[in-house]
Structure formats: C-alpha cells, structure tokens
Amino acid sequence: MIQFTTIPTAPAPWKEEFLTSNLPNGWSTGTGTSAFGVGTARGATGNGTTATNLFKNQYSSSTTGSFNTIAVGPLNAADYTFSFDYKQSKYDSPYAPLATWGNFEVQISTDFGTTWTNLATVDNEAGTGSYITKTYSLAAYQNQYVKIRINANRTAGDYDLSFDNFEIKSPGNSNPFCLPTFQYNSDGNMITKITFNTIDNTSQATSGATPSYEDFTNISTDINPGNTYPISVKGPSSTFPSDVMAYIDFNNNGIFDDAGESFYIGQLAAANPANANTIMSNILIPSTAVLGNTKMRIVKNTNIAAYSNPSAPNSISGPCATDLRAGQVEDYTVNIVAGSLSTTENNIPKGGIRIYPNPTTSIIKIDSKEKIKSFELYNISGQLIKKGGKVEEISLENNASGVYIIKITLENNEVSVSKVIKK
Ligand SMILES: [Ca+2]
Ligand SMILES: [Ca+2]
Ligand SMILES: [Ca+2]
Predict the structure, then answer these.
(1) What domains are defined for the chain?
(2) Could you list which residues have their CB under 5 Å from ion ligand 3?
(3) Which of 132, 247, 257, 370 is the most buried (most CB within 10 A)?
(4) What is the pTM of this model?
C-alpha cells in the first residue's frame, strides 16, 4: 500500500573510486550498446586504489554513451568542488591516446535528475596516456543535492573512454574519509554484524576472502542530537583480540576524528567466525551535531598489544591509521534530524498512510485510513516551514527544490515522519 519512491543519496564530502566491480548504489549507466560498465579492460584501467573504473568502448557502431552519479548532498560547505579523472585510449595495444576522438559534456542536476545544466564540455582534449583530472567549483550549489551526468560523443576512432575517482570535497580537506591500511587485510578479523539504532547489518565472514573495506553507506538510520543510541559489533578475531572504534562525522567536514567524534566500543576476544563474540556500547549524539546525512565508520583491528595487555586502550590511532594489523572498516550513513522528528514517533503500521507523488513538483497528497489531526513540514535543517490542522494535501509550490520532512499526527495520536522531495 505504501508506495514511497526512495531516492538514494550520499553524504558530502563524497568519493566514488569503484572499489568493486558492482555499479555503485544510485548510479545509472545507460543500456545496450550505449552503456558504460564498471570494470577494467585493455587501456581502460583505473587510477589510484583500484584498477576498476567506469568505461565504454566508443567506435563507429556505438558512438554515444551516458551515465549519472548518485545524488550527493546537502553541500553544506561553500567551497566544495567536483572532480573526476578521465582518459581516452585507443582500442588496440599499446592503447595510446587518440589525437581526434570526440567530446563529453559534464552536466549537473539539482532536482534529482529531472533537468540538467551543462557545467563544461571537454572537446577533443589532447591525451597524455595517463588520467587527466577535471575540477569544477560547486559554490553555486551550496545546501543543495547534486547529481552529475556525463554524455559522451564519439566523432572519430575506436577507443575506450574511462572515468574514475568522482569526488566532491572541500579543498581544505584533500583526502576526506581517508581509509586506514591493514598489514594483513581482513584475514579472519572481519566485522560480521553491526547494530546501531535501526541499522542491523550482517556481512560476510569468509576468512581470507573478505575485503578490508565494506561500503554500506546505502544503509541509513535517523538519529537525534542529545540522544543516546546502543551500538553492537560482532566479529571473529583470529589469534589476538580486536579493538573496535566507531567514528561519526558530526560536523560533516569529511574528517572522522575531530573532538567528540571517536568512540571506543570495546574489545572482541579471539574467536573463529562460527563462534564470534559481540560487544555493546552506547553513543551519545552531541547537541551540536550538524543536521542532515553524515557518515559513521566502524574500525576493527586485531593487535598484539591487546593480547599482551587486555586492558590496554584501543591501539587504533585514528580512522586513517596506516599501521593496523588485520581487521575491517565498515561505513554507514546516519541522518541527524531535529529532536521533534524522532523516528521513534514513526509508529504508524505499514499501509496506514500514503504520501504521493514523491518526488513532487508542487502538491503532496496524503491518504490515510485514520483521520489526520495535524501536520508539520520541516526543511532538511530541521526548521519548521509550515504547520496546520486536518489536511489532505500540502502545497510546496512556493518552496525551493530540495528535501523536506513531513510529520503527520493522526487523530489517534500516532505520528508518521517521512521524507519528501520537491523537484
Ligand atoms: Ca578506481
Ligand atoms: Ca563486514
Ligand atoms: Ca568531522
């Protein structure tokens, strides 16, 4: 009965470097012969951490291609830039760049892909044999969600057009959400289950075949400043115990260990994946936390210090430590919402209420089995925009494009909180 259209979003700062060969959440890459694909082939090898990249063979029978990113935002810093790496390489070995090949448009959308504006056109740019980095200011898009699209057009040749390392960041933080490095990768020391508020995520437990980084930022939970939430972490530890840290980027600057952002969750005793232990702790969300989407990182690391001194504090020196032994990092999204929008109020049984269309261009209609008593509409920063009594529809005609939160109270005092998007 409920038919919400959930539009996937990612918090900023943001980076997509194609760590696996799966198409990242929220992206689309076209269909048939005009489709871009994630992987690596011929000269289409990536730049940086992974060879994996997003590429397409452009040739006489397949001259155009298009793809778009997930929606990223809100962009709450004034100095955000958008950048990516690209190269074109001849289809045949040794995959040299072509002198004449065509062009691609770089487009941006602030309405989740309904309309697009050209940021730039890259036209027959001379290749270097290496990746070329393109960077564009997003100063004009502060506080908005943005989606980026690339439209590629071939005019000559048979070549691969490759893209990698899509990134939205502040120049003042050149490596947002930097990853730690493990001497022995994950080995038998992975995280197999996390619970935090409404997040309950189990992940793979194959010793020696589990990546040291898992990106679960498509999994999100709503949390309120000033509230405390339980967290549990489960995982094996092959020889020595493992320390577990949690980090939440409360001030939304791409750095995980500013004051008050680090939490020592505890130590997991040695165990194999089949009998892995679980530790629990609590995280107090500071009243100063910036509202909106941000990232939470869980870092687990096995270490000899913990073995020789079980009471030793964590030996994870930071969320980007370069000297960890073996373990895993999992990233999640947490959406910090004002206290009055607590999801614990969201106690209406599924099917009881329907809000549509979502996204909308102006009117939101509300169908409810129970009579509606009142409504409140908030912007993404948690400010009350409008409120009223019994209502069947709400007009967003005079409101800016973006994400809004609607809280509906029914006659029986049940409360529903939903996100709606105005295009
Ligand atoms: Ca890559
Ligand atoms: Ca895991
Ligand atoms: Ca931070």
Answers:
(1) 9-169 (2.60.120.260), 193-336 (2.60.40.10), 344-422 (2.60.40.1930)
(2) 249, 251, 253, 255, 258
(3) 247
(4) 0.58
